[in-house]
Amino acid sequence: xxxxxxxxxxxxxxxxxxxxxxxxxxxxxxxxxxxxxxxxxxxxxxxxxxxxxxxxxxxxxxxxxxxxxxxxxxxxxxxxxxxxxxxxxxxxxxxxxxxxxxxxxxxxxxxxxxxxxxxxxxxxxxxxxxxxxxxxxxxxxxxxxxxxxxxxxxxxxxxxxxxxxxxxxxxxxxxxxxxxxxxxxxxxxxxxxxxxxxxxxxxxxxxxxxxxxxxxxxxxxxxxxxxxxxxxxxxxxxxxxxxxxxxxxxxxxxxxxxxxxxxxxxxxxxxxxxxxxxxxxxxxxxxxxxxxxxxxxxxxxxxxxxxxxxxxxxxxxxxxxxxxxxxxxxxxxxxxxxxxxxxxxxxxxxxxxxxxxxxxxxxxx
Length: 365
What we know:
By secondary structure, the protein is mainly α. Helices cover 82% and strands 0% of the residues. It has twelve helices and no strands. It has helices at residues 2-13, 19-26, 34-39, 41-51, 61-100, 109-131, 149-152, 156-185, 194-202, 204-292, 295-332, 334-364. The longest helix is centred in the last third of the chain and has 89 residues, at 204-292. It is elongated and about 175 Å long.
């Protein structure tokens, strides 16, 4: 039975080679990669079965039908509310325009009476709506505080005249707003005739719906691109981490060997350079000697050097023997030191007297 289910699942979404791509396409908002599906085949099969009962947004067929029905009802209620709200705001804008432009002399008395009556009617309607505690809207509903139609509208004749003139005034006002919207949407139509503006105005709603549809399509495309970009970013980060690990392996495994070879090459280079410098110094020394001394003087200097080195060697030997004798004398103690000092003094006097006697003999002769 399980094998039959698996075959049916594969046949529903295509061949096994394209199964992962189709699962990802069926759940675009799910943060799952192709590697996750490959490592978890049972989870992949579960997603395939869920794709038969759910759409791309994660809703079931029954829930989606209820949602569509609710949205249609909501749209109907919204249209009714918008229709009433547009009329109400249109009347308020007419009153605002009247207050803003009431000072010019071109405002006639009937026009002033019309706007004042309309303003009073809106004010009374607003009071009724705010003070009425009930939720009924039929005409049999009792008036606020027991007021009658006559009590509320003592200016009934003005109200009748206002109601007769209101549709045309409201139509003109809405037409002007539509023309302003058309001028904003298509600034090039400012210089066109009224007939052409009317024709374009009749197509304005279709153009706006088209632009709205296009904007929603672009918004959906942006969401899909964002999901795709996030998925690609994750794949890129995974590949980047693999590359970093590979680089670390190369560094740790091969750096010491390469560094040893590099140090050996550098050492050979420095040894060769040092040898070359020594040879150059020797050559410079020989060249300086040849430029400074003749072969005879060099030979004489060598003999003098040999003689001086021999005398230096003899002096060093004599110094060493004297140091040995001095060390043996120091072993005898302080009493022998006094005798040695006295002996040195006597030797010095003897030498001085010999020198004086020799000088005296030399003078007499």
